[in-house]
Amino acid sequence: MTQQEFETLTGLNVSASEFDYIHRVYMAAGSLDKDAFCKEWKASHKAIRTSAILCAIVEENEHNVGYIGSLQSQLKSEKENFKAYSEHMADFLIQILAAE
Hints:
Elements: H1 3-10, H2 16-28, H3 34-49, H4 52-99
């Protein structure tokens, strides 16, 4: 969702830094569609912006997303290593069988 879409859907004008926080909350909201998110934000935006609990949840979610990305990179690397090892072992076994 862009800042312009958000402002159109809510009727609120926000600064770029405010929208950055709003977008972080929106991304943390998971499968909540933008229309429902904007409706909820408009109804309770003053409380949402000052909620220490929500801020902590958004930060934790962002941390977890980063951690998952790191794990995905490690998994990809391990798959590549395993593939190379398997190919090396296959070549080795072929050489042993050919020598017999």
